[in-house]
Specification:
Elements lengths: L2 E6 L28 H7 L10 E6 L3 H7 L8 E4 L4 H16 L4 E6 L2 E3 L2 H17 L3 E6 L10 E4 L3 E3 L2 E10 L4 H10 L2 E11 H11 L1 H10 L8 H9 L7 H6 L5 E6 L3 E3 L18 E9 L5 E12 L4 E6 L2 E6 L6 H8 L10
Length: about 350
């Protein structure tokens, strides 16, 4: 069986404004290293999946930016969705492309904005998951072993595990939404819950069966679009197929309903880079706890995250702030409120005089 991977890269990255914009969103920025995050996502899997079998699904306006970030991936493998229909539609589209090219193929759905600090262990888990999906008609999901009671991630309740190829696979009992603090602490204590990493591996046939059973409209879309894959009318066919679809995530569409899900218990230094505050976990801090990227002078200041790559930014007597300068815009906010940057961007989008900054 041929092994394919599809990297989802369609997000706008609003929480990383002002560095992330409509034309240069988070996935094409170098936040975790010197490489764009999308390039990191491709590079970490090329030992398992050759570039010609790596797909990237983004939105139409970001196709060229994504192609520039990953020149090793064939340009035709970077596909622009004509409109956003959430992750279930993206999975169905990827499945249709792989089904046309390799009907007996196996497909991993991965992300462009996650960091795996132990790349070798990530590849071991992914390889074992490919093996599992080839042997059995199961949906494999990567469940991250939690090391603190997070209220920001969804969880998977799992049964007893069995070790295969050095990886513990546990039957998934149910998917649960982001819990409150007390519930998250209980999940951690039981040892029965893993974080939902949002990464899935399945054979083309297993994916097709799941779509037919749980979301027939997406199964039909995939069937309709398949004859146009790699043909001159693909873009037009995709636009017509996407227009009537409803927005739904793959979690709601399939994962919360399917009975054939197994979870690969994973510990490879996974980090969902969701806000500016997450950069503290990716970069070294100075002697006073500041995370600094760029030209910064922090005087009598501690525990700040400061990014200023194209001009000098100076701090005096402040702590626990995020300060980001990019282009002609500057963001300043407390670290514990970085989730609200998305709301700020949405408010700015309603002002006619701020379009140039978005």
């Amino acid at each position: 069986m041929k092994r394919y991977a599809c990297i989802l890269a369609g997000g706008r990255g609003e929480r990383f404004w002002p560095m992330s914009t409509l034309k240069r969103p988070k996935q094409v920025l170098a936040l975790a290293s010197e490489k764009p995050m999308l390039r990191e996502a491709v590079d970490r899997i090329t030992d398992l999946v050759p570039p010609e079998q790596i797909l990237v699904i983004t939105n139409t306006s970001l196709v060229e930016a994504c192609r520039s970030a990953i020149p090793q991936v064939p340009a035709d493998n970077v596909i622009g969705e004509p409109c956003g229909r959430d992750t279930a539609a993206a999975c169905a589209l990827a499945g249709a492309i792989v089904a046309k090219r390799a009907p007996d193929g196996v497909l991993a759905m991965l992300t462009a904005d996650h960091v795996m600090r132990d790349g070798n262990r990530f590849r071991e888990v992914l390889r074992a998951s490919f093996d599992k999906a080839e042997r059995e008609p199961v949906i494999v999901t990567l469940g991250i072993k939690p090391d603190f009671p997070s209220t920001g991630f969804g969880y998977i309740e799992c049964g007893e595990g069995k070790t295969e190829s050095g990886v513990v696979f546990r039957p998934a009992k149910r998917f649960v939404e982001k819990p409150d603090r007390e519930t998250a602490e209980r999940y951690l204590e039981t040892g029965s819950y893993l974080w939902n990493g949002g990464m899935f591996i399945w054979s083309v046939r297993t994916l097709q069966d799941a779509l037919k059973r749980h979301v027939p409209a997406l199964a039909q879309m995939a069937e309709d679009i398949m004859p146009s894959v790699d043909a001159p009318d693909f873009v037009n066919a995709l636009q017509m197929a996407y227009a009537p679809l409803s927005r739904i995530s793959i979690d709601y569409a399939v994962m919360e309903k399917a009975a054939n899900i197994v979870t690969a218990e994973s510990s490879f230094g996974w980090l969902d880079v969701g806000t500016w505050a997450a950069l503290e976990k990716l970069h070294e801090k100075d002697a006073t706890g500041n995370t600094i990227l760029g030209l910064v002078e922090a005087f009598d200041s501690e525990d700040n995250v400061v990014i200023s790559k194209d001009r000098l930014t100076a701090l005096i007597g402040v702590e626990n702030l995020v300060v980001v300068h990019a282009g002609d815009a500057t963001l300043i906010c407390p670290k514990h409120r970085t989730e609200e940057v998305k709301q700020l961007v949405q408010a700015l989008s309603t002002r006619g005089d701020c379009d140039a900054f978005l």
